[in-house]
Amino acid sequence: MTLPGLLIEYLISGTIALIWLVPLLASFNIDAMESIPLPLIAVALYIVGMTIDFLAYWMVKPLKAFLRRKAWRENGEGREARNSSVDREIQFSLYAPELAKEVAMRSSRDRIARGAVANAAIAFLLEHVLNAYPLTLGIVAWILIILLLLAMWWVFQFLSFGYEISADRALREKLASKTLIT
Predict the structure, then answer these.
(1) Engineered SS bond to 92: which of 9, 46, 61, 99, CB 3.0-4.6 Å?
(2) Are 9 and 114 in contact (CB under 8 A)?
(3) What are phi and psi for residue 83, nearest 5 degrees?
(4) Measured between alpha carbons, how far is 87 from 75 in angstroms, rounded to an integer?
(5) Checking phi first, is residue 96 left (phi over 0); if not, alpha (psi -120 to 50) or beta?
(6) What is the overall mean pLDDT for the chain?
């Protein structure tokens, strides 16, 4: 992932965090917040976004492992073809840069989606568990929002990983046919 991609992803996750961050900070009645320069706000949102991504990674990690196994089964790949995602990224970068870009874009979408899940979960916890502030959404509404966002992440992640598996298979076949020809 290139720096601009990560920059945008973290800024988006940090901006989504404003849903729960603004009411939380407002509950502290900090008058000096109005005079914070915009560049510092952007840096703060970036850091919040990185933190959200870190938390989201750990939240969905058990689901992601299950999802990846399912994708491998549905794409008909045997154990011998299961190289690591880092190995696939390197192969794509070396031999198919357009595939590498596509996989990176899909990964970016997945990362933003999982950040949205984490942000919704934090907002729910702040409102209904810690009673930090009222967002006036009921428990059922929050659960539906979290489930919808989780389903969205699930579909995006499954599609992305299926694409990555298929792209890897196609690249391996192409490289194998080139080896046979030369």
Answers:
(1) 99
(2) no
(3) -80, 165
(4) 18
(5) beta
(6) 84
